Amino acid sequence: MKKHVLLLSFFSLLFFSFGFSAEITPNSAPVIGAQVIIERGQSAQEIDALFATLKNNNMDICRIRMFESYMHDGKGNWDFSTFDVAFRAAVKYNITIIATLFPMVDFTNIGGFKFPDSDAHLASIAEYIKQVVSHFKQYKSLYGWVLMNEIGSAKAPFTKPLTAQKFADWQKSDTIAAFNKAGNPIMQFQEERFLVDFNTWYLGWLKSEVRKYDTRSHLHVNTHAIYDTYAEYDFIKWRTILDSFGGSAHASWHFGNFTRDNFHYAMAANSEILRSGAGNKPWIMTEMQGGNNLWSGGIPMCPTKQEIEQWLWTVIGSGGKGMIFWSLNGRSAGIEAAEWSLLNLLNQPTDRLEMVGKVAAIVKRRADLFTTATEYESGVSILYTRQSLWAERRAETSGTNYAGRLPGGSIRSAIGYFETLSQLGIQTNLKNIEEFDFSAANNKGKVIILPHQICLSSSYVQKLQHFVNTGGVLFVDGLTGFFDENMRNQTTAKFAYTKLFGGLLKDAPFIDNQFTILMDNQKLPAHLWEGVIQPTTAQSLAKNAHGELVATANAFGNGKVIWIPSLVGVAAREANNYRPLAQCIEREIISQLPTTTIRFKKFAEGVLMKTLRTDSGYVVILINKNKKAQQVELHIPDKKPYTVLNASDNSTGKLSAKFLLKSEETKVIEFR
Questions:
Q1: Which of 66, 119, 305, 360 could pair with 58 in a Cys bridge, judged by C-beta atoms 3.0 to 4.6 Å apart?
Q2: Which of 1-10, 214-223, 281-290, 635-644 has the lowest average pLDDT?
Q3: E strands, 89-184, where?
Q4: Are the beta carbons of 619 and 317 closer than 8 angstroms?
Q5: How many CB atoms are located within 10 Å of the residue 616 CB?
Q6: Which residues is 248 bridged to in the sheet?
Q7: Which residues touch 371 (CB under 8 Å, ≥6 apart)?
Q8: Residue pair 618/671 in contact by the 8 Å Cβ criterion
Q9: What are the counts of helices (DSSP H) followed by strands (DSSP E) for the chain?
Q10: What is the pLDDT of residues 513-541, one digit of tens each?
């Protein structure tokens, strides 16, 4: 009898207890973990050692890719035994698993497909979900499902039968005709709009299939290559599908728009896009590069332990509730074999893994602090439109590769402002314009930046007018509003934004890759086109050599609009000189923010500050990627006693706002 009781107790431990060592909720402390690669041929001892390594390095969560190719022989026979070993090991070491659905693909397909090929393929995926979800939902260690790996494809596979049929059905209900109400031809963007809806449909279909067999587990998905794929994500609709949002942010694959010195800004901007998309849902960085990439990836590199620390604290400081490295161990064969891992080639810990363990230990020790910490809001938002990227991709650009003229110029402009504001210590939101809340009755102390968003629907005229009229500052850069949402030029005498902007765009002649605008006796670098304004109510901020206005300020209600119809955000990046734009921002934007806004007292080149608001004060994260040491002074209200949480001696101080940062150093400071 006693033996049966013991067996029942063990069985209950494995299957029927649903307490998790790590969760992803709005009120949980950030969780840190890694992808554990489980493959056929691994021994139970090898798998056990991987989970022991997680535990020994303070990691409580892992991700496992559920390869159908390792479970199913294609003839109806399923063998889950290798993965059973992993799920049992997770129970043994109290590790939470978030499992990625990964239906059958060729061995050389490392990312998985993004859409089913046919109805038969869809049925095969449904059967895979039935088998895998039904089997593994029993385990205490299973927390949730990643519905698919790295959603996002840039273009729908129209040659596939299922996509072609879905597109044909979608077209029947599409309400946007080839001509507008005035009879003018427009760009319908049917393929682009369909892709947005197709992604949402497939994500919802995957959820419905999982929920047939598992009604309780957490549901998640990770975006990827966000600076190339952001225009195909309808995050607002995804909030009804997902329990948490996620992303892949591999420096090697996804940060091609950045130099290595600016990878902390790349991680921060990626984080802000996800945070905005998630809304009230929690978000994590589902994949971050853990190790060396020899043959794969776009930029060959091996992260340093300092970069690992920087990325972890950047995500935490951006309000992220978790980070999972790709990966703990490397694949054994094929593409990406022995790459990307936190372990070395002998499966021994690296200094990168040790750094992960150190950061995780701090978060665990101060769970009380990070559980309810939220990102501090400065009121500054950079807004982008998905149609701007669509229009850039539809344009027939060729010849000289000017950064502002190539597809992605609009997001590069947004990044230029994000990097500049970061070096001023300003917390900056990065949002799809659809995600911005225009309903506030009072917008005094808030700023919206529209950075070269070449497609801007006239449907936002009243919303933006309300924002400015109620005290907000609108900063407009580049050829924002050149097209409407259907790529129809709207810079005519009937320009919908004339009243708000205080003028018309008279012309935008090409000048050069770099030229300058003289504002307030300071030279402001600009890129490509010099926009000339014909004013109605706006006042001059800058004139060109011909006496034409090239920058204006327009008072509107209780707020104002700054309009510089030249690419000054892109120019800052192209010249790698952010100081002039920072001076302009200090003069036109920061002066409009509340005097209590947390920021740097002066421009700090190469430094990123992320700030969390806590119940007792603030947590300030400082990262210096400058080649030189930097002393930064914070403008922070009510100077408070502080503790450097990641200092080896847990150093404390009183009433200081000056901090010396060595090159590549990260400081995490609690102000109480």
A1: 360
A2: 1-10
A3: 96-102, 142-146
A4: yes
A5: 12
A6: 287
A7: 27, 28, 29
A8: yes
A9: 19, 28
A10: 999 999 989 999 999 999 999 999 999 99
* pLDDT tens digits, 247-289: 999 999 999 999 999 999 999 999 999 999 999 999 999 999 9
Q: To which CATH superfamily is domain 380-592 assigned?
A: Class I glutamine amidotransferase (GATase) domain (3.40.50.880)
CA angle at 544 for the pair 383 and 513, rounded to the nearest 5°: 60
DSSP 444-502: TT-EEEEES-SB--GGGHHHHHHHHHTT-EEEEETTTTSB-TTS-B--STT-TTHHHHT
* Residue 596 contacts residue 581 (beta carbons within 8 Å): no
Q: Residue-wise over 578-609: b if at least 16 C-beta within 10 A, else e?
A: bebbbbbbeebbbebbeeebbbbeebbebbbb
- What global pTM score does this model have? 0.96
* Strand order across the beta sheet in which 630-635 lies: 599-600, 630-635, 658-661
Does the pLDDT at position 2 exceed 50? no
CA 605 to chain centre: 23
pLDDT in tens, 325-346: 999 999 999 999 999 999 999 9
Q: Where are the beta strands (DSSP E) in 87-134?
A: 96-102
| 3-state secondary structure at position 12 | helix
CATH number of 2-372: 3.20.20.80
> How far is Cα 168 from Cα 201, in angstroms, rounded to an integer?
15
The residues spanned by each domain of the chain are 2-372, 380-592, 599-671
Amino acid in the structure at residue 388: S
* Radius of gyration of the chain measured on its C-alpha atoms: 26
Cα distance between residue 577 and residue 213, in whole Å = 55
Query: Cα–Cα distance between 509 and 512 in angstroms, integer?
Result: 10
Name every residue whose Cβ is closer than 8 Å to that of residue 554 and which is 6 or more positions away in sequence.
Answer: 500, 501, 502, 503, 537, 538, 539, 560, 561, 563
CA 549/CA 527 separation, integer angstroms: 17
Evaluate whether 129 touches 213 at the Cβ level (below 8 Å): yes
Name residue, tokens 């070993």: 85
Residue 407 to residue 386: CA distance in whole angstroms: 12
Kindly list the distances between the CA atom of residue 168 and the CA atoms of 139, 165, 171, 172, 231, in Å, as whole numbers in the listed order: 42, 5, 5, 7, 22
Residues 343/345/346/348 CA torsion (nearest 10 deg)? -20
499 near 474, Cβ under 8 Å?
A: no
Give the Å distances, CA to CA, from 257 to 159, 228, 408. Answer: 30, 10, 9
Sign of the four-CA dihedral 67, 209, 202, 266: negative
> Is it the case that residue 5 has pLDDT exceeding 50?
no
The residues near 349 (Cβ < 8 Å, ≥ 6 apart) are 53, 57, 342, 343
Q: What distance in Å separates the CA atoms of residue 27 and residue 595, rounded to the nearest whole number?
A: 30
Q: What is the pLDDT of residues 29-41, one digit of tens each?
A: 999 999 999 999 9
Q: Which two tokens stand for residue 118?
A: 């046919």
Strand 283-289 to 380-384 pairing: unpaired
| Spatial separation of the C-alpha atoms in residues 420 and 13, rounded to whole Å | 52
The pLDDT tens digits for 566-580 are 999 999 999 999 999
Query: Cβ–Cβ contacts within 10 Å for residue 628, how many?
Result: 10
CATH of domain 599-671: 2.60.40.1180
Sign of the dihedral through C-alpha 108, 114, 119, 123: positive
- β partners of residue 284: 246
Q: Which two tokens stand for residue 445?
A: 């102390």
Residues 616/643, Cβ–Cβ less than 8 Å: no
Q: In this predicted structure, what is the pLDDT of residue 7?
A: 42
